[in-house]
Amino acid sequence: MTAALWRAVDELLDGAEVAGIRANKLGALAARLRRHTGRPVPPALAADERGAAVAVVMARPLLEHIRSLCDGPLVLVKGPEVARLYPGSARTFGDVDLLAGDAHAAQRALLAAGYVEVDDPERFLDHHHLRPLRSPTVGLKVEFHTAPLWPPGRHPPPLQEILDRSVVAGVDVEGISTPDPVHHALILAAHAWSHDPLQTLRDLVDIAAVSAGCSEAELAQTAEAWGIPKIWRTTRAAIGALLEGGSTTVPLRTWARHLRPVRERTVLDNHLMRWFHVFWELPPRAAAGDLRAAFRMTLLPAPGEAWREKLARTGHSFRHPGEPMSTHLTWSHEVHRRRTRS
């Protein structure tokens, strides 16, 4: 399965543009796969590959230092634990995410050792992880999680259940574990969906790599017990269609149609996702009720946005439906900056 996975990913990336590969956060892997077969590597992808190598080198001493400072269980999710499954560990990451038996005590221990809290504190008042920490010596951030990130309206799985079934981490730092692969795959799926459903191909590659060899029945049963059965089925079907030669799915033909050509989501794609993704997340009646949020996001100004900015942004969207979202957001920020200055 693993070799077949990377062949399938390589086939998708081979025909994609560099901008789309990087938007899907697979620049380092694309560089590694191209280099391995003697194909030319564009400078931007080579830079991503170097960044991934640096992150991998930094992660182990950072984790060793964290482990020496903290008591209790530490369970590593995402980041370096997923990167080690990639060929040549060619996956970028900018932080280490740890589920801790006592996240607040771990945070205090690192602060006492010279780590510094960063980012806006207001964002972390009611958040699934504490305020990020910057190491005094290493360029990666540290985030202690009190629970996995879970879709709104549903309770995350009990932390103790994840801690109890954790296994030795592949990063090979004594005292650092990682979730059982079934748990880890579902944590990754819920995390990706909560940020932006089916946003990047890398999210699906991560989940496919972590879940390789897992029982499909156990994955489905655990997803049901953890309250995300439709999210898991949608995610698993997308993986099957894109990476295993399975039948395509409705999301991949509509609101996630950017994934197969490995390009960035456009303004139109984003609107389709906003309106329709809930039908692949919730039961039909609940999904219909959830459309109120999509209605507000589409028709009303964002927090802090004036009506003039909202109308300008709406008009721009109608005129440029195929514009990449990053370009659209840059334009919106510039409009906001000019209006604020004036």
Q: Give me the Rg, rounded.
A: 21 Å
Strand content: 5-15%
Instruction: Report the helical percentage.
Output: 40-55%
From the spread of the alpha carbons, the general shape counts as: globular
Structural class: alpha/beta
Low-confidence stretches: none
Number of strands: 7
If you average the pLDDT, what whole number results? 90
Strand order within the widest sheet? 3-4-5-2-1-7-6
**Number of DSSP helical runs:** 16
What do you see in this structure?
The chain is an alpha/beta fold and 342 residues long. 55% of the residues lie in helices and 7% in strands. It has 16 helices and seven strands. It has helices at residues 2-14, 18-23, 27-36, 43-69, 79-83, 103-112, 159-164, 181-195, 201-211, 216-225, 229-243, 250-253, 267-276, 284-299, 307-319, 325-341, and strands at residues 74-77, 95-100, 116-117, 133-134, 141-145, 167-168, 176-178. A seven-stranded mixed sheet has the order 3-4-5-2-1-7-6, sandwiched between helices. A hairpin with a 6-residue loop joins strand 4 (133-134) and strand 5 (141-145). The termini are far apart. The model has no long low-confidence stretch (mean pLDDT 90).
